[in-house]
Structure formats: structure tokens, C-alpha cells
Amino acid sequence: MAEKKQDLASDPNLLNQLEEIQEALQNLRFQKSMQQLEDLSQIKKTKKKIARLKTIIHEKKMLNESEN
User: Fold this and answer.
1) Are 44 and 29 in contact (CB under 8 A)?
2) Whether the Cβ atoms of residue 49 and residue 24 lie closer than 8 Å to each other
3) What is the pLDDT of residue 34?
4) Global pTM value
5) Res. 6 pLDDT band, cuts 50 70 90
6) Range of the domain at 27
7) What does 8-65 look like in DSSP terms, one character per residue?
8) Contact yes or no for 22/50 (Cβ under 8 A)
9) What is the CATH number of the domain that holds 17?
């Protein structure tokens, strides 16, 4: 029971992280369009971070659904 509360408490944190990283990706894309971005690999790394977070969120969601 305590684990469920922990999972539910961490989900808003994960969602906040996801939003922040998505905003960062948007800023990187804007910088690229303005030709201010020197390291283009930052976009690729940021997209991978987003994918990892989405995977974790999805796994937690599936785990919670299977427990119910």
C-alpha cells in the first residue's frame, strides 16, 4: 500500500520533469532556427530524455492498472 502512494506521489514529479524537458527542446529548436545553437547533438539528447521519461510514466501507469 505504501508503494502505491509513493508511485502516485512521484508521477506529478515525472510529469513536471517531462514538461520542463519538452520546453527545453522547444527552446533548442528555436535556437537552431535562429542559428544560435552550436551543439546540434543537444536536440538528440533531449529527445532521448523525453522518450525515457515517457517510457517510465507509461510503465508506472501499466503497473498501477495491473494492480487494480
Assistant:
1) no
2) no
3) 95
4) 0.79
5) very low
6) 2-67
7) HHHHHHHHHHHHHHHHHHHHHHHHHHTT--S-THHHHHHHHHHHHHHHHHHHHHHHHH
8) yes
9) 1.10.287
Residues in the chain: 68
pLDDT tens, residue by residue, 7-56:
554 578 999 999 999 999 999 999 999 999 999 999 999 999 999 999 99
Domains contained in the chain, number: 1
* Phi/psi of residue 58, nearest 5 degrees: -65, -40
CB 23 within 8 Å of CB 50: no
| Alpha carbons 16 and 14: distance in angstroms, whole number | 5
pLDDT at site 10: 59
Torsion angle defined by CA atoms of residues 15, 16, 19 and 21, in that order, rounded to the nearest 10 degrees: -110
